[in-house]
Amino acid sequence: MKIDGKTKIVGIFGYPLAHSLSPHLHNAAFDELALDFVYLPFWVQSKNLEVAVRAIRSLNMVGVNVTIPHKERIMAYLDEVAPDARMMGAVNTVLNRKGKLIGYNTDGQGFIDSLEGEGELNPNGKRVMLLGAGGAARAISSVLIQEGIASLTIVNRTQRRGEELVHHLKRIFKNRCPIDFLEFGKRNLEARLREINLFVNATSVGLNPEGDLLINLDLFSPGTFIHDIVYNRKTELLEAAEQRGLPCLGGLGMLIRQAALSFEIWTHRKAPIQKMRDTAEKELGMKKRRT
Ligand SMILES: NC(=O)c1ccc[n+]([C@@H]2O[C@H](COP(=O)([O-])OP(=O)(O)OC[C@H]3O[C@@H](n4cnc5c(N)ncnc54)[C@H](OP(=O)(O)O)[C@@H]3O)[C@@H](O)[C@H]2O)c1
After folding, report:
1. What is the count of structural domains for the chain?
2. Quick one: 58 and 90 in the same domain?
3. Are 157 and 44 contained in the same domain?
4. pLDDT digit string (tens) for 250-289?
5. Same domain (yes/no): 222, 128
6. 240 and 261 share one domain
7. How far is the CA of 188 from the centre of ligand 1 (A)?
8. In a 3-state reduction of DSSP, which class is residue 15?
9. What is the 68 CA–ligand 1 centroid distance (Å)?
10. Does 133 share its domain with 242?
11. Whose C-alpha lies nearest to ligand 1, atom 20?
């Protein structure tokens, strides 16, 4: 990589960032297309978010990705938020268009592109259970409703946060599909597992080997599709799904697709997806596998 006075700067705002794959993915993609861009990690704590956002303008950066814990709060500091990001209530990509900061969300579309591409599953008409009510769950629930799912059950450890998401979705989507909330680990959850066609884990459980979702996979009906969006390892959930012959998908495809969409917003060039995937697999020390 050659950096000179014309090199365009993008990066990621988050805290912590040590394990982020995004710098690897984007810098490999810039190299592949010989674009004079560089992608840098910026460890931005919550108390510094506003000043960091102002620096996108003052440092003439092209844009940034935004990750935990800033995806929701950053919206307050932007000039404009794209309608689908506004609907999700979360931004993961910012574009600096001649000093005007515009927020986008590529997580939701990245999720759908991966589900339909690698997973070969069209969510239309499916009964869905979604674990989690954080930034990722917000994006995923919105796009799934837009894709025409038959029903949505949100399950979350913290009741208040889960109910808030359900309230938000009902306000935005009115009666597009039935949406309800169940508390994590409760008996009524088990009864519901049999009815669903698509189960998505959008919690951080599974990021670490000691994580355990405490879901009894024997209660799923045959053919239930299991999608765990954790991307840094093959989770216990995916192992258990494979053992039972259930169709399943990990989160690496979503990571790459959302990164590709951000890349395209900044560069107006088609992202080299295969290069990004090879780079991610190399960084994660994975052999080629179904993601
Ligand atoms: N593949 C991709 O491209 C992609 C993109 C975005 C995110 N992700 C992954 O998605 C996950 C969530 O990200 P996020 O941005 O939504 O994070 P977040 O906003 O911090 O939300 C975390 C979610 O996980 C739940 N949770 C955390 N620890 C838990 C535990 N021990 N037991 C039960 N629930 C627990 C939280 O529940 P409470 O509300 O109860 O705290 C919350 O619902 C992370 O693993 C992240 O790496 C993947």
Report:
1. 2
2. yes
3. no
4. 999 999 999 999 999 999 999 999 999 999 999 998 644 4
5. yes
6. no
7. 22
8. coil
9. 9
10. yes
11. 134
> Range of 172's domain?
122-246
Asked whether residue 110 is assigned to any structural domain, the reply reads no
Residue 143 neighbours by CB under 8 Å, 6+ apart: 84, 88, 108, 109, 111, 112
Q: Can you read off the two tokens belonging to residue 22?
A: 């995004």
Give yes or no: 174 in active site: no
The ligand 1 atom at the shortest distance from the C-alpha of residue 257 is 3
Number of other CB atoms surrounding residue 209 within 10 Å: 9
Residues 237, 145 share a domain: yes
pLDDT of 213 reads 65
Atom of ligand 1 nearest to the CA of 232: 47
The CATH number assigned to the domain holding 178 equals 3.40.50.720
268: left (phi over 0), alpha (psi -120 to 50) or beta: left
pLDDT at res. 186: 62
- pLDDT for 2 equals 87
Q: Say how far apart CA 251 and CA 157 lie, in whole Å.
A: 21
Clarify whether residues 242 and 259 are in a common domain. no
Cα angle 235, 291, 264 (rounded to 5 degrees) comes to 125
Same structural domain for residues 86 and 148? no
Q: Does the predicted model carry a pTM greater than 0.85?
A: yes
Q: Which one, of 62, 68, 20, lies nearest residue 41 by Cα?
A: 20
Q: Which residues line ligand 1 (CB under 6 A)?
A: 68, 107, 110, 132-137, 156-158, 161, 184, 202-205, 207, 229-231, 251, 254-255, 258
Residue ranges, the chain, pLDDT below 50 = 287-291
